[in-house]
Write a structure and sequence with these properties.
By secondary structure, the chain is of the alpha/beta class. The chain is about 35% helix and about 20% strand. A hairpin with a 2-residue loop joins strand 3 (about 60) and strand 4.
Length: about 150
């Protein structure tokens, strides 16, 4: 029934929960998991950053210290691979650049997915009105059923 599952993740803690749900379903149906982490580039990229993200760097005795950005696509990909391995599963990663909702729907169509699994997280009213909700966009436009994972307590 669910042979190809798309797990749409971001850099939030909910991403692991989304991946765990996708892996559990894939194991039940002997399916495969495609993980999508879309990077929003362009003019709005700075505005779309979470309100709680710090833009400043850490200063060391010899100047700024380079830190790994947890929202960076390679970091998210590495985290998802490690999490999948921890659950004894392989994944196929997709790291497209573009509008996350549009890219999730595009990849789901491209891989002939049977299910999209994604998470939700709270946004301010202003942010929702200006840029919308990725989960809302995917639910409305996905060619297949969508399972929404809410963050645990």
């Amino acid at each position: 029934m669910f042979n190809r599952i798309v797990a749409a993740v971001d850099a939030s803690e909910t991403a692991e929960e989304v991946l765990e749900v996708a892996i559990a379903i894939s194991k039940k149906f002997d399916g495969e998991v495609h993980v999508v982490h879309a990077v929003h580039g362009g003019v709005l990229a700075g505005f779309l950053r979470d309100e709680d993200e710090d833009e400043g760097g850490v200063m060391g005795p010899d100047g700024p210290i380079e830190e790994e950005d947890e929202d960076d696509p390679e970091s998210v990909a590495r985290r998802m691979r490690q999490h999948a391995e921890m659950h004894g599963s392989g994944i196929t990663l997709h790291l497209p650049e573009g509008s996350p909702g549009e890219e999730i729907v595009r990849v789901a169509s491209e891989v002939h997915a049977d299910l999209v699994v994604l998470g939700v997280r709270g946004k301010s009213l202003v942010r929702r009105l200006l840029v919308g909700s990725v989960s809302g966009y995917v639910i409305e436009n996905s060619p297949v059923s969508t399972l929404v994972v809410k963050p645990g307590p």
